[in-house]
Amino acid sequence: MVGGAIGLVVVAVALIISNIPSETAAIRDVFPHKPAMVSPPQASTLADNDICKTLVEPQGYTCQHYQVTTEDGYTLGMQRIPAGRSGKKANKPPVLVQHGVLADAALYLVSSPEQCLPFILADNGYDVWLSNARGTACSRTHTSLSPNDEKFWDWSWVELGTYDLPAFIEGVHNQTGKKLHYVGHSLGTLMALSAFSTDFKQIDMIRSATLLSPIAYMNQIGSTLLKEITVFSLAEPTSMKNLVHLSQMIRTGTIRKYDYNTSENMKQYNQATPPAYDMSKIPKDFPLFMSYGKNDYLSDVKDVEVLLETIKDHDKDKLAVQYLENYAHMDFVMGNNTRQAVFEPLMAFIAQH
């Protein structure tokens, strides 16, 4: 199968950080150019309407650009595909499609239309919405901060689940007046899992959630992977804090909020250690579809099994789990037979909910 590169890079950087005793000066030595941000050597420039104009409309689909603003001031870009290639308007519920780490919505659109999830959904009658997390090319503005400010990059996946995800969901719901299906890949699954396990008011706006290459527990990632890393060109930047947070998860094997240090944790959380997320708190009657693969270095099989054990009391008719023997991390987005292996079972699941 194709497409393990981005997953390997994330693992590599997180492992490097997880083995650095100090997460301050030492990190500046590893990434001296800008400690607040990890920027790919050839970052995407597909801002604003460019995803529509460059990747969607040339394939014969209508594409509309929207913006939403988060509670903490980030302006985020979204792309909507409201009809299939035939021009027939969607007659099924909205589907919100969220990318993973070091990527943006463009990642879902680089294969042929017959193999791209957004186009497949649109051709099957769904109203497709693509979301772009803060820091990506079309989500790089703020009501008061500049991307050149370190504070602009002061976030991890916690903020993505706390602020970005609600803004996306409310944006779709406000525009359509309908409950939506959610599809997340990689970090997009952690955004959802962390949100769903808390007092997440927007969950009533969601019909189901599909989690491709789910990331929750990350204790099984091994340092031998560093030997397999070469140089890759990534799609989009992320914050250094986000990668440090992932490295903390690798070290501890837990899902907690960001660990500053004891004194700062007391200020932030009123306790010495960061609060933990309890995945068993996800509503048991909430429809979930999970798909994971044997060759996935970021969503390790044993880690996914820990997650499944944690939610073992989930209503059996509301949880569908798929295991693919030969799939790596990016195969769930752009594999050679992903349509047949993943997307068709995905659509069968959401059609039931």
Automatic annotation (TrEMBL):
SUPFAM superfamilies: alpha/beta-Hydrolases (SSF53474). Residues 1-26 form the signal peptide. One of its GO terms (biological process) is lipid metabolic process. One of its GO terms (molecular function) is hydrolase activity, acting on ester bonds. Keywords: Signal. Belongs to the AB hydrolase superfamily. Lipase family. It comes from the Eukaryota. The active site is at S186 (nucleophile), D296 (charge relay system), H329 (charge relay system). It comes from Cannabis sativa. This is Partial AB-hydrolase lipase domain-containing protein. The keyword Acetylation does not apply. Residues 54-111 form the Partial AB-hydrolase lipase domain. InterPro entries: AB_hydrolase_fold, AB_hydrolase_lipase, Lipase_euk.
